[in-house]
Amino acid sequence: MNVTFRQLQVFVEVAKTGNMTRAAEALHLTPPAVSMQVKELEAQVGLPLFDRQGRSVQLSTAGEYFLVHAKRLLAALKEADDAMARLKRVEHGRLTIGMVNTAKYFVPHMLARFHEEHPGVEVRLQLAANREELVALMNAGEADLAIMGRPPKELATRAEAFAPHPLVFVAPAGHPLTTTAQAPAEVLTRYPLIAREAGSGTRAAMERYFAAHRVAPHVAMELPSNETIKQAVIAGMGLSFLSLHTIALELRHGLLAVLDIVGTPVMRTWNVVHVGSRVLSPAAEAFRYFLIEHGEAFLSQQTAGVPGPAGQAAPGGSAAAPAAGSAGTAEAAPGPASAPAPQPD
């Protein structure tokens, strides 16, 4: 097959968007140009790669198989480009950062600061719906670096901790528990709990906490969105267990309150992760170093002045991050919880 990399790029974008027009906008091409590239690629392959349904397109069976190979080829091309850029020591090009849902509360702010120092780098964010999707992005070479809690065991990666990550129990302002100091975990069973969905890192960390304290909580509601959970708690529908980094704004405005529960905050770490076998571009290396050097101070500043239990300072804001982990591992910061818990998504 005499296939060009441009045709592969167009094919992957059309498969991603399911629409020729949207793919054209993303690639800064005209819709007829995108359509022509796809037709030429199908002619080379000898099979239809898409099933057309009006303006929308869906991958055919052949297209689904070909997409796997197209992504591999594009990932290999990017690795070659990154390797050459490293030899030239030039910081330019595109940097793609994948992140879990909870990281969206601080990563864009850190990227903005990074871009001030490296204006030649074009930054792209990939927000994964869950941890599994983020691992898939890394495996496919669609994310240079990933910001996450628990590094994947199913993929050979290098993970380095750059900041502590406290998780806390929260309640609406004025809740009876907000005036109780060092309340035992058992008191939480008296109130409905609004939890992240099963399978999320935050949910797993919460379940480990309750298991360690031999407490069976009353989970009244499961929601996949931190924002929806926060609104439900503010409305008085129950308590919740969330990352401190997702609730700073609500704490400052007195909409939520951190509860002083024994064994909390549950301390974990934020990690910057990349596939160990892939060569990082100079831009990715620069952002990796930026996170390790400034991440802890930035997140501590973000939660500075945020009221904690009974008006105290926010918990866990100045804890030191652990030393950088080795390939595929990262040490968790020591915390008061009775048992270790998985890193939150």
Mean pLDDT: 84
Low-confidence stretches: 317-345
| Count of alpha and pi helical runs | 10
What is the β-strand count? 11
Measure the end-to-end span: 42 Å
Helix percent reads 25-40%
User: What is the ordering of alpha helices and beta strands?
Assistant: HHHEEHEHEHEEEHEHEHEEH
3D shape: elongated
Q: Kindly identify the CATH topology of the domain at 164-268 and 307-311.
A: D-Maltodextrin-Binding Protein, domain 2
Largest sheet: 9 strands, mixed
The CATH architecture term of the domain at 164-268 and 307-311 is 3-Layer(aba) Sandwich
Explain briefly what this protein structure is.
The chain is of the alpha/beta class and 345 residues long.
Describe this structure in words.
There is one protein chain. Strand 3, helix 5 and strand 4 form a beta-alpha-beta unit. Helices cover 38% and strands 20% of the residues. The chain is of the alpha/beta class and 345 residues long. Helix 1 crosses helix 2 and helix 1 crosses helix 4. Among the domains are: 88 residues, Arc Repressor Mutant, subunit A, CATH 1.10.10; 110 residues, D-Maltodextrin-Binding Protein, domain 2. The relative contact order is 0.16. The strands form two sheets. Strands 3, 4, 5, 6, 7, 8, 9, 10 and 11 form a nine-stranded mixed sheet that branches. It has a two-stranded antiparallel sheet with strand order 1-2. It starts with a helix and ends in a 42-residue tail after the last helix. The radius of gyration is 23 Å and the shape is elongated. The longest helix has 28 residues.
